Amino acid sequence: MAHIIVVGNEKGGSGKSTTSMHVATALARMGHKVGALDLDVRQRSFGRYLENRAAFAQREGLDLPTPLLGHLEPESPGGPDPLSQAVDALDRECDFILLDCPGSHTRLSQMAHTLADTLITPMNDSFVDFDLLARMSPEGRILGPSIYAEMVWSARQLRGEAGAGPIDWLVLRNRLGTQAMHNKRKVGGALTTLSKRIGFRVAPGFSERVIFRELFPRGLTLLDLKDIGTEQLSMSNIAARQELRELIGELNLPGVSVSF
Hints:
P-loop_NTPase, 9 helices, single chain, alpha/beta, DNA_Partitioning_ATPase
């Protein structure tokens, strides 16, 4: 069976689609067969990213390793579950299936979390995003899990009842700034404390970089730059590739050895 990776967070703008695209494409470039589903049926940022990639590769005559984008059928009363159908179709030919969830609570997102072998939760490094994981007092004391953490807990319980195994949950600290060190330390300390209480791992994600916005229209990732003739990478691009390399290593996926 394919290993299912879910990228989820009930808040927009945390970097879910960028994370999804780079993880899925990195695995494909390493020779793994990767399926992809965009569960944000309204905005479809991840799906459009992959469609942009296919169109750019065809136009330029490039053979870019690309995840297989699955299709969700419209849900109909009494009909089969569209998510299970789409996952089953990809499972027949993929080593990994990556599900990108919307930045809101939906039934599809809730179901996707129960399928997750690995859960990636990108968050901006601020207490605004931290609030989705836990409620805090004005003095900075953690009062208890918040809405998203409770949803993950429910998904874990359902998986346990079904004998599906645990969810390996990784929280990514995206947009870690070099400034505002006091806030960075406070958020980091709160995440470390919370991780021990509700069971997730913490890792640095992607810094804020212009390159990510520039890559989207062509469907490219950091790993594709040499394929399009960019021989000399800037220091920022080299640092971003290292962030991706460390993220893939931190995920500790079965059968994956980082090779880029």
